[in-house]
Write a structure and sequence with these properties.
Elements: H1 2-19, E1 22-30, E2 35-45, E3 50-56, E4 67-76, E5 85-92, H2 94-99, E6 105-112, E7 117-119, E8 122-124, E9 129-135, E10 140-149, E11 158-159
Parallel strand pairs: 2-11
Antiparallel strand pairs: 1-2, 1-10, 2-3, 3-4, 4-5, 5-6, 6-9, 7-8, 9-10
Length: 174
């Protein structure tokens, strides 16, 4: 009977911690335009500052696989970067998802915990996402930034034919 009670208590505790997780979706806007990238981020906030989820590359990018993401709460300080503030940083397997293989390339993404303000179909104010790209050799090959919204892509806006992570430079493609 003791084992049964412990199992029930464990399930109740685990169930309540999973139930308390909150999900968020981030649609990415190109900086200075009314163009939305074809990928969007879906993450769940877990306890102790951990986040996990996926980069959706199947719905609008017509890719075969979505990309796994995992990370944690983080604050980017004001300084030389075009985006800053409280948010999350995730490691994003977007290059592997498009290659359907391990590439050794990494897209790392910071997303603000606040969505952008949109006026006239274009974001304004502080940028709410920033990504950087590199390879397993330590070579940094790009970055990108812009605004986010929580809503699906409005039909009146253009959808970019590429992701926030862009594409690998030709010399880095395998």
């Amino acid at each position: 009977m003791k084992f049964k009670t412990v199992a029930v208590i464990t399930l109740v505790v685990l169930g309540s911690s999973f139930a308390s997780a909150q999900a968020a979706t981030f649609y990415f806007w190109e900086a200075g335009t009314d163009i939305l990238y074809c990928n969007f981020l879906v993450i769940t906030y877990h306890s102790n500052g951990v986040v996990a989820g996926y980069e959706n590359t199947t719905t609008y990018c017509n890719n075969r696989f979505n990309a796994a993401v995992v990370g944690f709460d983080a604050t980017l300080p004001k300084g030389g970067l075009p985006a800053h503030g409280k948010g999350v940083i995730v490691g994003d397997a977007i290059y592997d998802a498009f290659a359907d293989a391990y590439t050794g390339d990494q897209w790392t993404l910071w997303v603000s915990d606040k969505y952008s303000k949109i006026r006239g179909g274009i974001g304004y104010g502080p940028y709410t996402w920033l990504g950087v790209a590199g390879t397993y050799t330590g070579f940094y090959f790009g970055d990108n930034y812009g605004w986010t919204t929580p809503t699906p892509i409005p039909s009146r806006h253009k959808v970019a034919g590429h992701t926030t992570a862009g594409t690998l430079p030709e010399k880095l493609r395998k």
